[in-house]
């Protein structure tokens, strides 16, 4: 759903979401009634890292992409964890999130 909402396509050589124009929209999702958001600066691959993926050219790439046919809708990964505090309460089998300062 991310690709159809954002206008991107999966790049076959990297597996990343690829855009011909720079996305300007914030990506938001809701967990337990609380909305969490990532800005383009947070979810786009920095151009300085393109060489690590063998990327060249003037397209834009995102760490966020559709889960495909695997049935995975969303994985809370590095970009989310860089921007939100996570508390793992193993005693009560729960996870909490808070905005980073």
TrEMBL record:
<dbReference type="InterPro" id="IPR033121">
    <property type="entry name" value="PEPTIDASE_A1"/>
</dbReference>
<protein>
    <recommendedName>
        <fullName>Peptidase A1 domain-containing protein</fullName>
    </recommendedName>
</protein>
<feature type="domain" description="Peptidase A1">
    <location>
        <begin position="1"/>
        <end position="98"/>
    </location>
</feature>
<dbReference type="InterPro" id="IPR021109">
    <property type="entry name" value="Peptidase_aspartic_dom_sf"/>
</dbReference>
<dbReference type="Pfam" id="PF00026">
    <property type="entry name" value="Asp"/>
</dbReference>
